[in-house]
Design goal:
Blueprint (H helix, E strand, L loop, with lengths): L1 E5 L8 H14 L3 E7 L25 E3 L4 H14 L3 E6 L5 H10 L5 E6 L11 H9 L4 E4 L2 H6 L7 E4 L14 H7 L7 E6 L8 H14 L3 E6 L6 H10 L6 E4 L8 H7 L2 E4 L8 H8 L4 E3 L15 E2 L4 H12 L4 H13 L2 H12 L1
Parallel strand pairs: 1-2, 1-4, 2-3, 4-5, 5-6, 6-7, 8-9, 8-11, 9-10, 11-12, 12-13
């Protein structure tokens, strides 16, 4: 079976690119797999971060590339598909902005090729006016759909009535596990005697960092040994959060690392953390949840959207999306012995493997 995987891949950075890299590596073991990526995702004037690209290029990934904003690039992509003659085209969807690109490729490719959508999100986390229009167009170009959560699977009925399946978000395979907590803290010049809460990943409005900071004020009033680390590049105006930290007098209790954390350094931050905090106001599934499970770290989470299919009180601390509930769960976590939760996290790590995911995916598309 010859498969063409379409979606962002390194050197484009981000969770979707990392996911596609692992998917490509998993599928190559059993199938003839080829990849079509993007030259870039966003025009510079609308991209909120510092860079769309990683500093280190993965030379093992041989991919063709398309410029999503250049019509001639689509002609080149379609000619490539004619020469390749794939049996299946899998497009990995996370933002309706790219639904049009996928739709053009699917509609103008041979009808003999089965088109499959792999859905991370239906709509973007910050809704766009044309999201539903682009989604309808995209779903009209598909034969099958794969979802990464039941939450998303239930919603696609409004757009798609053909064969679909709900799988899961697999756990990443990183090269480095956690190192000793105290050594990791000392290397980053943190005090090992304190307790640490980690908010990791890109900072966007739906991540609820403002709610977390408000909650953390209540935490500090009860326990001043707890310190919050925010590690990840801000796609929001950082001044808004710095002003909030100042207003709440949290300057000595919060550390911000406003940088995109490359994959090779992720373990350093998770090694330092006693708990991972996730206060999303909305979500489908989460790469941060998957990372936490990989590093065997317990989460304190609002478990929005499809995240609740993975996290529960057996393996995590679940709170509501309000400061009072979040603060109480943080305090509860630091006052609790959590050996049983760690055992449950280890079970999840085995259950949500890439090998199982790729096998399930192949069985479905065959």
């Amino acid at each position: 079976m010859k498969i063409l995987l379409i979606g962002p891949l390194p050197p484009i950075r981000g969770g979707i690119s990392d996911f596609n890299k692992e998917l490509l590596k998993s599928l190559i073991r059993t199938s003839d797999v080829h990849a079509l990526s993007f030259k870039y995702l966003y025009p510079k004037y609308i991209f909120p971060g510092k860079s769309q690209f990683k500093n280190v290029v993965d030379d093992n990934l041989k991919t063709k590339k398309i410029n999503p904003y250049n019509p001639i690039s689509y002609l080149n992509a379609l000619n490539y598909i004619i020469d390749l003659k794939p049996d299946k085209i899998i497009s990995t969807h996370w933002n309706p902005l790219f639904s049009l690109s996928y739709s053009i490729i699917n509609f103008f490719s041979s009808k003999k090729i089965e088109k499959i959508g792999l859905m991370h999100n239906l709509k973007s986390h910050e809704d766009g006016l044309l999201d539903s229009f682009f989604l309808n167009l995209y779903f009209g170009s598909l034969d099958k759909v794969i979802c990464l959560s039941d939450f998303t699977h239930k919603k696609i009925g409004n757009f798609f009535n053909c064969k679909s399946v709900s799988l899961f978000h697999p756990i990443p395979k990183l090269n480095q596990l956690c190192i000793d907590r105290d050594k990791a803290l000392i290397k980053k010049k943190f005090d090992p005697k304190k307790k640490y809460l980690l908010h990791f990943g890109l900072v966007r409005k739906y991540k609820g960092l403002d709610i977390l900071l408000t909650a953390f004020k209540k935490v500090i009033e009860k326990n001043k040994t707890i310190h919050l680390i925010v590690a990840g590049e801000f796609y929001e105006n950082i001044k808004k959060y710095e002003n909030l930290i100042g207003d709440l007098k949290l300057q000595n209790h919060v550390t911000i690392e406003n940088e995109f954390i490359p994959e090779k350094d992720i373990y350093k931050w998770f090694s330092m953390a006693d708990y991972i905090i996730q206060t999303n106001t909305r979500a489908t599934q989460s790469g941060i949840t998957a990372l936490s499970i990989f590093f065997e770290k317990i989460m304190i989470s609002t478990a929005s959207g499809g995240i609740k299919e993975t996290l529960n009180e057996k393996n995590s601390f679940i709170c509501e999306k309000d400061p009072k509930s979040i603060s109480l769960k943080i305090l509860e976590a630091f006052e609790t012995k959590n050996d049983k939760k760690i055992l449950e996290i280890k079970k999840l790590k085995n259950k949500l493997s890439w090998d199982k995911f790729s096998n399930d995916l192949l069985n479905f598309i065959k």
